[in-house]
Amino acid sequence: MKKMPPIAKIYEAYSAIADERVLLEENKATITSSNGQKKYNVSWKENIYVSNDNASFWQGYPGYPIIAVLMLQHKLPFHKETALLFQNINWHELNEKYKRNYDKTIEEVLSHLNTDVEKIKKETEEIYEALRNLPLEIKRKI
Length: 142
What we know:
This protein has helices at residues 8-18, 54-59, 64-72, 80-84, 91-97, 102-111, 117-133; strands at 22-24, 28-32, 39-45, 48-51, 137-139. With 142 residues, the protein is of the alpha+beta class. The protein has a 5-stranded mixed sheet. A hairpin with a 3-residue loop joins strand 1 and strand 2 (28-32). Helix 1 packs across helix 3 (64-72). The model has no long low-confidence stretch (mean pLDDT 96).
């Protein structure tokens, strides 16, 4: 993969799955944003993925909608218990609050969890490495 996303996108993907905001179909998926205001479309053919979320479309790296799809397709590790810790988080609001400083956003979210945060970080880093090793292409259209 040419460009990697911020690791925060993995946490956002967890939320999308835990909140049941991902509608997965045969070759496409629809993902609703954390504040419910937007719907993102993901489609794929073999290892080429396309999404209309800002990160995927403009930045060229897989945004959380693509990452969520990859988890549900079992192409990336997925830890259901961990994902459930990220239910009902308005990432849009937090990302605006911290002016897209994803590290600060994640710091705040993790600080409110009553669990082993180091274990969660380790799992997330493992997912990030698995993502790095996937033979993916992120394009604007198939």
